[in-house]
Amino acid sequence: MPVIADRCPAVRTTIVDMNAARIAAWNSERLPVYEPGLEEVVRRVRGRNLSFSTDVAGAIKRADLIFVCVNTPTKTYGLGAGRAADLSYIESVARMIAEHADTPKIIIEKSTIPVRTAESISAILAANKHGLRFQVLSNPEFLAEGTAIHDLENPDRVLIGGERTPEGEAAMKVLAGVYASWVPRDRIITTSLWSSELSKLVANAFLAQRIASINTISAVCEATGADVDEVAHVIGRDSRIGPKFLKASVGFGGSCFQKDILNLVYLCEHFGLTEVGAYWESVVRMNDHQKRRFTERMVKELFNTVAGKRIAILGFAFKKNTNDTRESAAIAVCRDLLAEHATLAVYDPQVAADDIRRDLQGAADDRLVIARDAYEACAGAHGVAILTEWDEFKSLDFARILKAMPKPASIFDGRNILDLAKLRAMGFQAFGIGK
Ligand code: UDX
After folding, report:
1. What is the C-alpha separation between 250 and 298, in angstroms, rounded?
2. Residue 254 alpha carbon to ligand 1 centre in Å
3. Of 256, 268, 334, 378, which one is the catalytic site residue?
4. CA–CA distance from 290 to each of 64, 248, 333 (Å)?
5. Whose CA, among 22, 101, 103, 236, lies 20 to 30 Å from 62?
6. In terms of C-beta density within 10 A (0-12 exposed, 13-18 middle, 19 or more buried), how is residue 297 classed?
């Protein structure tokens, strides 16, 4: 919304949430989300044509377009537990709109939701007391965290799905008009509702599959002595494959990939497509395998035991330039190391100590130290694991780190950002992913 407000001065945007603390944080000097460039945009538009408020009913009444941006976490209970999306927030928003709206509106699903959710939203909206007609559009977001503002300002494409009726086409035109203020027309794609909802799941499934695929090859490289970065470089030069999203790693994380694939799997199973579901589920299984494989290699190289040893964990966010830890590979690796009775000293430049403790809750708090910087984390550690590719880790003073570690000192680069040959020449035992 800040980017829309920034690019469309004539559009008035209001962000509403029932959570007063959250709204207060967005109205404060310190924004609750770390994202490069976000603060500048918010400062520009807040109080101009963007406001944050808890008056949900009032904002619904005044709006012509309503973006539904609520969380759709994976269901933890009942039918489809662990796979299907929990749509209770979506439903309660639809009911709230039906209750408060007194003029027709265009409702836009921004939350990633499984195919055919628009149908349920329409059904709830149709039951409003004024007999109003609403148009429901699907407008999935393709931004990646850490580069969100850049991605929003320069999107590869904007996707708008709607009903193929004159009213649906007209609503799509209105929304396309908003984006056209800064996005070239040929990048605005319109499809049916269902194609749009499904495309978002498929886009994430394909991206995650690329990472899972190169990660399987990293295991082959470690076994054979080939270098996975070299292999990725060679295959990426084939223009049909392309160079992006082929970086082998300790495993993908984030709020989208695993959740969306599991949604796709649930959808397949629902329609009796068991083999298709199993195919996509294997991407998630392979990612879990990669995280476990990383920890197993650490334990093996640390002479088959980490019990009582201090291990430094550099990076806890699921990728650089974000303070988001959802599904971060670091969580699985830390839990496995704590289960092996290691003591962990964790440092991340942006993740709050409380969030790290929350994510590792129940996994031996007495053996968890949160360090203020990388040097403090590494002092006295037998091993160092790099789990997020933060730029500051590339320019650490490794001679200083080596001095403060018991020998032999080991480094496990879970992101392939360090020069292993150089580290080995300094006296480290150095390991990467697929090397
Ligand atoms: C993703 C999609 O990229 C985005 O289009 C969608 O809207 C939301 O989901 P996001 O989860 O924010 O975005 O981050 P992304 O950059 O895709 O990274 C996901 C994970 O994959 C991270 O843990 C990242 O470190 C990892 N990754 C990415 C790799 O391990 N290797 C790569 O080559 C690329």
Report:
1. 12
2. 7
3. 256
4. 47, 10, 10
5. 22
6. middle
171-199 tens-digit pLDDT: 999 999 999 999 999 999 999 999 999 99
Q: How far apart are CA 262 and CA 84, in angstroms?
A: 7
pLDDT of residue 236: 98
Taking the model in full, what pTM does it have?
0.94
For 263-298, the pLDDT digits (tens) are: 999 999 999 999 999 999 999 999 999 999 999 999
Q: Name the one residue in this structure whose structure tokens are 């929304």.
A: 175
Other CB atoms within 10 A of residue 116 CB? 12
Q: What is the pLDDT of residue 363?
A: 78
What DSSP state is assigned to residue 73?
P
160-184: b or e for each residue (b if 16 or more CB lie within 10 Å)?
A: bbbbeeeebeebbeebbebbeeebe
Residues with CB under 6 A from ligand 1: 141-145, 204, 207, 211, 245-247, 249, 252-254, 256-257, 318-319
* Euclidean distance between CA atoms 115 and 138, whole angstroms: 10
In the residue annotation, 256 being an active-site residue is answered as: yes
pLDDT tens digits for range 377-400: 999 999 999 999 999 999 999 999
Locate 30 and state its tokens.
């310190």
Please report, for residues 314, 376, 417, the alpha-carbon distance to residue 412 in angstroms, rounded to integers and kept in the order given. 10, 17, 11
Ligand 1 atom having least distance to the Cα of 250: 30
- Ligand 1: which residue has its CA nearest to atom 7? 142
Confidence of residue 138 (pLDDT cuts 50, 70, 90): very high
